[in-house]
Write a structure and sequence with these properties.
With 175 residues, the protein is of the alpha+beta class. It is built from 4 helices and 5 strands; from the N terminus they run ββαβαβαβα.
Length: 175
């Protein structure tokens, strides 16, 4: 088993487990290796050091529960949800480039929580949001798909919506 430290073009770091180096090269050549955070297929191998389990040494003044915060990590999102960019596309809440693994894990946990506590209404999102807003049906937490134009119209009507990327990692059971 070969465990590789990988990074996408957006600087999201993740591990990939492969049967061998040849298996990695084969999957990479076929475009099957992608970032679990954003789905980017421009992935590169990062330098790694072998891990040797020689025992744990705790230095004086350190507890075994110490945590390390990455220098320069920023938990803020890269865009304000619901704002349109220069092309008119709605910006979505997403991880900033170079976010550390702790931030990535927190982001994925929050998205999983959101998925578990909302109803997927699919392409009927705009219709359902309007019906709830105008009191035609009981309010509930929903998610779904709609066009950027339709989302902007919902915002103009005073209906709060937020674009939200759902990475492929959330569709998998193994993470």
């Amino acid at each position: 088993m070969k465990v590789l430290n990988l990074q996408c073009a957006h600087q999201h770091s993740f591990e990939g487990w492969f049967a061998s180096e040849d298996a990695f090269q084969s999957q990479f050549a076929q475009g099957q290796v992608e970032c679990p955070m954003c789905g980017d297929r421009q992935v590169q191998k990062m330098p790694t050091a072998p891990r040797l389990n020689l025992g744990v040494q705790v230095l004086p003044g350190m507890s075994s529960e110490s945590t390390v915060q990455e220098a320069g990590s920023n938990p803020n999102v890269t865009a304000r949800p619901g704002e349109a960019d220069a092309s008119g596309q709605l910006s979505a809440m997403r991880m900033p480039p170079g976010a550390g693994t702790a931030e990535q894990a927190t982001f994925l946990k929050a998205l999983r929580h959101l998925m578990a506590h909302t109803e997927d209404v699919g392409q009927r999102f705009a219709e359902e949001a309007r019906r709830m807003h105008y009191g035609d049906i009981e309010s509930r937490n929903i998610r779904g798909q709609t066009s950027a134009r339709e989302a902007m119209e919902l915002l103009d009507e005073g209906i709060e919506v937020m674009p939200l990327p759902l990475p492929a990692a959330l569709k998998e059971t193994l993470q």
